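Example record for the data management plan.
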Amino acid sequence: MRLRADRPLHLAPATVLDYRELARRRLPRQLFDYIDGGAYEETTMRANVADLERLKLRQVVMRDVSSRDQSVDVLRQRLPLPIILAPIGLGGMFARRAEVQAVRAAGRAGVPFVESTLSICSIEEVARAASTPPWFQLYVMRDRGFTEELIARARAVGSPVLVLTVDLAVVGARHRDTRNAVVGQPRPWANIRRGLDLLSHPRWIRDVGIGGKPLTFGNLERAVPDASTPAAFREWVDAQFDPSVTWNDIAWVRENWDGPLVVKGVLDPQDAHHAVDAGVDGIVVSNHGGRQLDAVPSTSRALPNVVDAVGDRVEVLVDGGIRTGLDVVKMVSLGARAVLIGRPWAWAVAARGERGVGHVLEVMRADIDVALALTGHTAFGDLDSSALFDPGSKSARLENA
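Corresponding structural encoding:
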């Protein structure tokens, strides 16, 4: 998917990809690539988008669709539309106190915001700005005492849902970050190049580098005090992210959290069964936005098998490659209860702050409304695979004859 070359960007952005292009212009290269990039050759990241594009909706006409309802029940909450703002690490590096801006936009739209463990703004700062408490995303780390502290902080601000990310036992190779010297031990020339990259974006320096301080990991201040030192951050990640975590550790999480518990990062039906047996309330079918293991299935391909395996026992959510409200309808038609969007809100907040995030949600809401009506549906609860065009069906074969 590419931005139309003929669209003048001095006009108001109309699509998520318009915001992506604005973010590319406004962010230092190292930060834009952090949002925009994936692991290894980025084939899975591209497949997340491409496979959704290949799915087609089934247009059905002459139905009474005069009243349409986009609301859904997700993990004991009634949402006005089936969208959740996904956790994004380092979000506050993209715009001034970006997590705060995003949670305000989410609140106006009535959708949840998921605070990342690796956010720049702390869970307390985000909760103070929120109209309803944010969900909290967590990793089980080697320092279990510190992990318990994070859970307690989420509970203290009233977080209704804990999202446990399980696909980061080790960090995938993100080549863009390596080239930009965002990870590893950079050579002196690489630090100079990074510095020149930042200096070439005075607006970012004024808005974020100076105006957005403190640029520390708000939830990890005592562990990683400085977000501007990639080597120190990666050293902390390697030391704390625990590759020995198994499904048995869900019981330990349950001892510290009695609310809805979701695991994020499941692609395989067998893993989905393990998650359900461990007692979770929901699963997010996710490949980490193509940022972990490359050459794995896109989430739209993996989703139906997970839904078939456990969809009658837990709520199944999904992320990855969602760029429009039509994509939301496709994912729900494949069996998801709701979707999480990450890059769309990150691009939007980088481009136009809170207003951009709100506008992206408004555009998706409008997309969804049109798609519901023209697939002959009046409520999200009625969507299933019959809303998708099946080229192998009898009617399609007759049309192609």
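Summary line stored alongside the record: The beta strands are 72-74, 77-79, 83-85, 114-115, 135-138, 162-165, 261-266, 282-285, 315-319, 338-341.
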